[in-house]
Records
---
Amino acid sequence: MRKIFLALLILSIVLIMGLGVFVFYYYPHFVKPRVAYEDAVALYESGDYVTAAMQFESMAGYSNSEDFAKRAWLEAGNESFAAGDYAAAKSYYAKAEADDLVFAQIDHAYFELGSEAYATGDSPLGESYFLCVSEGSGYRDMMDPIRINFAESLLKNDEFTAAERIFAVCGDENRDTIAGLWYACGESKLHVWELNTADSCFAKALTYSSDKDAMQQNIDALWNEAGKLALSQDNAELADKCFARGGGSYDPRESHNSAAYAEAVEAYNSGDLAGALARFSEIPDYADSAERIEELRGVLANWFVAGGAIFYATLDENGSVATYGDWEEYTAPDWQGVKKLAVGYYRFMLGINADGTVVGSGNSSWGNLNISGWSDIVDVACGDMHSVGLRSDGTVVACGRDYYGQVSHVKDWTDIVSVGAGVSFTVGLKSDGTVVAAGQNANGECQVSGWSGIKQISVGGCHVVGLREDGTVVATGLNTDGQCNVSGWTDIVAVYAGAYHTVGLKADGTLVAAGSNSYGECGVASYRDPICVSCGRGFTLMILKDGTVVKLGSVNTIEE
């Protein structure tokens, strides 16, 4: 009996010890983790990724719990991202130690949300989204343009404080862009005379500008221009305020100059180009008057006058042709697009079209109007009954009466830059400054072979005049009336030869003349700055800068 009791006691002790081992060692180390793991797997499979992840994390080191936890956090992040909860997704992805591409999609989502919020005008919401974008993200460079564009719209609506809040969060690399916007805003306010607001905007522009000296110069220039404009509007008080801010000063004549400038601009805008030129010429040093004068002179250079023996023709800036004198047998041709005229010593004339072809009108009994095949013409000249054309390639064409070779002997000429025609001879100026001539030479009119340094030629009835590069003048040919007595002329910029007289334009705009003055054709001393000059038989024609056509002398002087 005692042996049985002892055996039972030993067995009980063994059982108790085994139970202790199970309870205190085996169960917590093997059974419980296994149960928890299986519960976590069940949670994962049911879609409760967050709880599963936390449970897997609580048994770190058991089986593949750590990897399973990351997978659960990743799935939790994906689920939150799909639901639009990007903050939670970002947190879960961080726990999952997700790769950069996963975080990039969150940055993109925040950027898109921020962009959409700015587009709808909700800049605070947009900025809250932009602040969630990672510092190292490439989207950072794309945010400032959106901010700046929105802030620019605020500036246009005078919401300056709101605009400045947005500008303040932009990167330093955009400070000059922001400075430019404040500058433009100040300029627009200055245009409507909101001086204090303009001042504030310019101050902001200086704050942001990387080149404060240059910015200050530009701002000062705006204030001074505004002062000039105020003067033109007879507002001296406003002008003083503007000049004080710009650090400038003004001449008492400024008001007159600005008024004259305004009148010139008004004439220009109304189409009165000659009037505009005249007004701008009164104030050549004011504002952009010098540039305007050059432009108008270029346009009005096509306002042309051409004289012959018994009539003359004019070509205005619109391409309209009019004839005056002994032209009763013909009406003025209805030419369109003509850019230059030439009048013959008898009743015919030529015109160059804009496309380089040539038109003719009048007496053609000697074939002098056989010009239908001419093309690429840049200059024309008319003799008594022959016509000459210069092509752009420097070659020459001619037709009409050819008694002295004035037509046939010019067709081999090359490198010609200008042509002229007398009664029965032809002259050409070459690109090297030398001169060639062909035709009748009874009065030495073709003796030009020794000339050099010539930049312009003009051909009269029986004499030729050449202008040298140094402003002096040479002449050859018939000199019965002193039309070749030009050797003492200096500072000449253009020459014009008539039948028996010569006119020169000096650099100061005045005119000189030599030769026959039987009809007053040399009475040019009281005129200056003509747009165009042409001399005929017994008369001088000029178009003045105000558009007036002046005729000195008499047109119908030829003996029929």
---
Amino acid sequence: MDGNEARKELASKQYTGEEIKVLKGLEPVRERPGMYIGSTGIDGLHHLVYEVVDNSIDEAMAGYCDHIKVTLENGEFGEVCSVDDNGRGIPVDMHATEKKSTLEVVLTQLHAGGKFDDNAYKVSGGLHGVGVSCVNALSDWMEVTVRRPPYKYRQVYHKGIPEKDVEKIGEADTTGTTVRFTPDFSIMEKNSFSYETLLSRFRELSYLNKGITIELVDKRGEEEKKEILHAEGGLSSFVKYLNEYKTTLFDPISFEGRKMIEKENKEVSVEVAIQYNDKYDEKIYTFVNNINTREGGTHLVGFRTALSRCLNNQLRKSQKYMKKYSEALEATDIAEGLTAIISVKIPEPQFEGQTKMKLGNSAVRGIVDSLVYENLTNYFDEYPENIDKLLDKVTSAAIGRIAARKARENIRKKNDVGGLPGKLADCSEKDPAKCEVFIVEGDSAGGTAKQGRDSRFQAILPLWGKMLNVEKAQEAKVLNNEKLHPVIQTIGAGITRYNETTDDALDEDNKAEKTFDLSKVRYHKVIIMADADVDGSHIRTLLLTFFFRYMKPLIEAGYVYFAMPPLYKLTIGKKVFYAYQEEEKRKIIDEYANGDESKVAAQRYKGLGEMEKEELWETTMNPETRIIGQVHLSDAEEADRVFSMLMGEDVEPRREFIEKNANYVSMLDI
């Protein structure tokens, strides 16, 4: 037998019908959960909630529901999420072909639901009709209660399997559905529902579906948390919320319209809200049937095309601003300070990829383009004072873009030549994953840090002088700021003005300028080390704002940290303690000095420069004993609002935030 025949015989023995596994019902979901909800981690956990809520939102879009209540509570077998709505209630009658309750069919079979019937839902969100059944499959326990007058019905499931048939449990005089479930942590990673994460998504949904009320209640802690979300203003209110701490050029421009795709005989609904502020970043959110299309798509392309055509036409009509800047405006010029929401509702949307991140329907581009161009042109013709403000901003942005390009080229040349800032005390280790750099304010603290560090893997970069608030500065000014050059050179990955503008919208020159390269970062721990006081908080915020606006991938990769120096050194007898908060100081005195402060020698550190090198090493720099806070961007939208508030003109909200967050925590989420 030759080798080829031997392989054939071996294959016939090893690969038979017995090796073909047939997954029935909800088994595919339990076997490969990531295919249906993206991941089994914290994002997947929240996705379970979203899928149930999406069913209620579909009822709202169809005009049958105006109140949704989501409750988080502790149950017998773990956390329970409850979603209650006042929609029509899932049908409970016998299904014509499946010979069982329609409720059970919807909850136990993939691709079963009203979303596949245009008479039930004209438009819908969710995971292609598999949403609620996926949640059932990935729940240790689920209870569904349906109110369809005159009766109330109930069915309980365990790991997607019904406990028994649907049962009638009483009378009902209102309609609706309540779904309660506990995730199956034998499949899902052990995590807790995040109140803040859910709140952010539900706030989004309330703006996208004006008139509905979404109530979020968290009963898991000692004190109940509750938020009621209701936005009669729709997308206009959404834009106002995003620009809450920014100075705006004019009130939001909002409009909506409907148009038929004649070849398909389908109606597309488009709603848009636009507002410009005095900042230099862009915020655009696009949605299709309430799904956040983070990668844009044809609706975004149509919007950008119309906005660009409109503003360039307005510029050509203005002799005043043509003298200031006579060339065509580019995408980045128009993007500066733009906040916009585009919401499209369409039957049978086509998405690129399973994640629904990008819309592919080609007809939508032209519909959005014509609607936006017509409405914006009419608006600016009616309000010439507002187009005057906007042309002043976009032409200044164009001039700034040219200056920034020159400044960026100078930075690139410096990086190409090589060399590091003279004040940087570098480490000997060359593997970035093992290296960390402390950015320290002032030469005094920097000197102590240099003496106290482990020079094998710890680098020190002292900063001096007042740092630039990049939130209030145009890009060219930031790039030419000498105080920031040492930071850029030290990190070594270049610099990119953070902007929501997608690569598709940029010309080749602007694409080339998106130069931040995460693979070139020289330290995987960039630790901001400042004094433990309000001034220190301000320095940290200035640096963090710079990283957020110009090196956002650095934060997203988890490379940015805060050092946490102590407030007090407490000596009680021969024992030495360090306290990082006033409350901690009190506890130490109570425990080790019986509350008698006369027995305690307390030293209040006014600054890092006051600490001995051994003290700084032991409390703040030694990886074995220190506490450092990693910065996360768990919600970019909220992070943007926080940075705008901290660096904005309004003093009161900034003071309240700093006072509330001045004390250190072991992990900082922004």
---
Amino acid sequence: MSRILCVWSPNWAIETWRRRRPSAPQAEPFALASLSRGLRVLTAVSPQAAAAGLFPGQGLTDARALRPDLVLAEAEPGADARALEALADWCVRFSPAVAPDPPDGLFLDIGGVSHLWGGEAEMAADLAARLARDGLTGRIAVADTAGAAWALARSPAAAAGPQVLASRILEPGGTEAQPLAPELAGLPTTALRLEPAAVERLARLGLRRIGQLAGLPRAPLAKRFGTKVLLRLDQALGRAPEALAFRRPPTPWFARLDLAEPVSAPEDLARLCRDATLRLCARLEASGRGARRFRLDFHRVDGAPVGLELGLSRPARDPDRIARLFLPRLESLDPGFGIEAVSLQAAETEVLAPGQSDLASLLEPVEGPEALAPLIDRLTARLGARRVWRSRPLASHVPERSVHRAAAREAQAGPAGGWPAWRPRPLRLLPRPEVLEAVIALTPDEPPRQFRWRGRVHRIRLAEGPERIGAEWWRTGIEAVRTDQVRDYYRVEDQDGARLWVFRSGLHDHDRPVRWWLHGLFG
């Protein structure tokens, strides 16, 4: 059975603003403001400001009139969103499936992992205590559904307590109980995540509690208030599914090591990396699978996760090879005050059956893509995926459209399985064709005998061609095709042995002189 833990920080914007400025004075009452529809309004208020009668959405002029001593700062929603994503990454220590609930909450799927803390209550208490040590208010609830956990965490009963409260836990099956469990039946309709207008319409008919809605006939309720009310009610009670956008999609290929004492020495980090790799690769080997992507996370004592990602050109499960690719990058990690846990996750797994090698294959060198895979992986691990790439053929006769830049780890070779051998072309083309000057040819239809390029004169000894390439009329329509779009390509060699790829644009016309261009160089 799925169990969802919801974390809500009611003062998230205020607390994260102060965490980003630890030296700022803790003046009260304090609020954050932003521009909304041409007016300055409060977006977040501290508990002291709320006690003084201020609230989010209040106009700044009204707030100043009520409390002239109000301390104001500019809201930073972008920074708050990034902080929430960082908190979601930090919560991976509790569950591999964490979904942000902007702007101030999280969902954790703790089904099957809470026993590692001794139970759901102990797990929630540990999470709340860690948040409190970092200066964050955490209100936590656990239920079978995300909707029920969200409602319990934000219910008025929870809001009436101290800053960090005992978690509210709804027993398994509590959302499906008949009659409805008192913990849910007594919650207000605002706990169903409805629009304010829908809540107001329900209140006019005296429907202020979830238990009242659950006891009404569904058809009249949907006809009068819309299907959104029924959907939210069904999601809270487990009658309708709700998809959570996990920041890291849950995967069974996951290994974690918890330490009794924090470590920070480079050799200790290397040993942790290898131990986690051994554990995960053993599971992959037992299942006959390999992975193309790995993510290694070191969880620091101060709560900041430090992660490394590794991509492979071919699926693998060799722990020695994978650990060696991670080791050079460990030098760039900042362990802070120490690492207390490490986790390794595999993605893009594939079936990887072991192969039987005969004696001849062991004596002969490995050829093909398998030979380049280790080199590509080492270069990618050291330089980054964007700096290691390869050219791939595309189905087009136009040279600049027949090649595209692809990741070095990409497995697909191309539309025809490789490069066409019947039309030799340079491996690298110029970014754009460059015009040739002072071109001399015996006749207009023959290749050039001499030209000047980049200030240097080239005298041609040998020439081969032409290879005629017309415009791809199907891209723009045949009425747009003109004769000056035709290209005649030649492979030429100059007096110094340099081989060049040149072309003449357009067909010979006495009224329009042709132009010559250099498009690439061989070798």
